[in-house]
Design goal:
Layout: E1 2-4, H1 7-15, E2 20-24, H2 26-31, H3 34-37, H4 49-58, H5 63-73, H6 75-84, E3 85-90, E4 95-100
Parallel strand pairs: 1-2
Antiparallel strand pairs: 2-4, 3-4
Helix pairs in contact: 4-5, 5-6
Length: 101
């Protein structure tokens, strides 16, 4: 299990294919909208920026939020999270747990 507080730590944990990643604090709150997209099947996750923004918007996530997440976290990290992990929001919105599918 890996506990992360920053984007850099999250990218390292994803690259290491950690079986369980606990995201805490401000980063967990920033990633909260991804829990709406996580319900899609892995084969339906778009891998281009435009398609990902459209997918966010169709899931009820605003375009501005989608673009901010893509710019801040990066499309590769977002796609890795959505395809490889189940997301569970805990402790209100201050902890996001990613568990390997």
């Amino acid at each position: 299990m890996s506990t992360v507080l920053t984007i850099k730590e999250l990218k390292v944990a994803l690259a290491n294919k950690e079986p369980r990643i606990v995201i805490r604090g401000k980063l967990a709150k920033q990633l909260k909208p991804l829990t709406k997209l996580n319900k899609q099947s892995a084969s339906n996750i778009p891998t281009s920026q435009g398609a990902l923004v459209a997918s966010f918007t169709l899931s009820g996530i605003g375009t501005a939020v989608a673009i901010t997440l893509i710019v801040t976290i990066g499309i590769v990290s977002i796609v890795a999270m959505l395809k490889n992990y189940n997301m569970v929001l805990r402790s209100g919105d201050s902890e996001l747990v990613l568990e390997k599918k």
